[in-house]
Design a protein that fits this description.
With about 210 residues, the chain is an all-alpha fold. It has one domain: Vanadium-containing Chloroperoxidase, domain 2. It contains eight helices and no strands.
Amino acid sequence: MREVDRRLLSAMRDCGTDPRVAAAARGLSWCGEHGAVWIAAGLVGAGADHERRGAWLRGTALVGAAHLASMAVKLAVRRARPQLASLRPLVSTAGRHSFPSSHAASAAAAALAFGALGPAGRHLVPPLAAAMCVSRLVVGVHYPTDVVAGVLLGGITAGLGAAWMTGPATAATASRAAATVRAAPPAATAPVGAASRASASEGGAAHA
């Protein structure tokens, strides 16, 4: 398995010999450092989407939790960063441990959390998250198994927090809907009551 891991990494790192691919991979890796791009996206979403502000903030907290969880696992596993004899990494790293990928963990958490909050998150975040995961292989700082483990960790974190993230927002929406229903009958029956009274008046006048 270790040899397969190394060969796949070497093949992905070879893609970084193209300057355009290398530049894109570097940019994605830098943006994803400490989950920065996802935390920023969550805060922007909270500012723009007033109705679901709480859900956006809780989703952002899940991204942060996935990142912190990945750091804890790294300290426990202590797997060294890959070293390829022929190709050096394209970026520097904040730490020397590689398993799991923190970039992948925060990206997967963001894809699931923000993807549940509307069409924009559903269509934009998952492709960007996938590209960020691949970028960690292209820049040569993670084995494929690091990235897979990071995706699983981020997905589990977001999945465990899904009800917490969306629950209050759903309850608030249901409460507003119930209030609308309760307010509707008086408004709807008022014309009917008025019409009944008018009909009764006309009947009385006819008998008179």
